[in-house]
TrEMBL record:
Coiled coil: none annotated. InterPro entries: Ptyr_pPase, Ptyr_pPase_sf. Residues 6-130 form the Phosphotyrosine protein phosphatase I domain. Keywords: Arsenical resistance. One of its GO terms (biological process) is response to arsenic-containing substance. The keyword Transmembrane does not apply. It comes from Rhodoferax aquaticus. This is Protein tyrosine phosphatase.
Length: 166
């Protein structure tokens, strides 16, 4: 049975910064056309977002998405929502991802791991805000695409190409 909204899963390592920001942006910009989800590597997922993520969402006026602290094993079960797209936000994690049920389209929008690059609260806060700004731009492009219509291969390339946008 087809579903009316487009289900998109964002994947990062810990599900504390990048994937949470992407989920929040899509939930806001998708205006009901999309159902946004996020997850991380099951053994590395944290139960709560990084404090810098919460602060960035507050500054942007975006609600904190739920549920949080989810491993990708929650999306490989038969009872899980069927994803239309899985967008991985970490190149290293892309190599580890499982086979997704229903064979969703996949894309890589690679962002560096903020916590491995930035040290100190000010640096981390700044990096997280940059990631949020970039994700908002990419997601605005994503929501403008005719994902329910159009030629599948062309749409796949368009979504993948968004990963090269600022």
């Amino acid at each position: 049975m087809p579903h009316s909204s487009i289900n998109i899963l964002f994947v990062s390592r810990r599900n504390t910064i990048r994937s949470v920001l992407a989920q929040a942006c899509l939930a806001h910009s998708g205006k009901g056309r999309f159902a946004a989800y996020s997850c991380g590597v099951p053994v590395e997922v944290h139960k709560q977002p990084n404090p810098a993520t919460l602060e960035a969402l507050r500054k942007a006026g975006l609600p904190v998405p739920t549920p949080l602290g989810v491993g990708w094993d929650q999306f490989t079960k038969h009872s899980s929502p069927r994803m239309d797209w899985v967008i991985t936000l970490d190149e290293d994690v892309k190599r580890l991802t499982p086979s997704w049920p229903g064979q969703p389209e996949t894309a890589l929008w690679s962002y560096p791991d903020v916590l491995s690059r930035a040290f100190g609260k000010t640096a981390i806060d700044g990096e997280v805000l940059q990631v949020l700004h970039s994700l908002r731009n990419r997601i605005e492009i994503l929501v403008s695409l005719p994902l329910h219509a159009g030629e599948r291969a062309a749409l796949r390339e368009d979504v993948r190409d968004i990963g090269y946008a600022a």
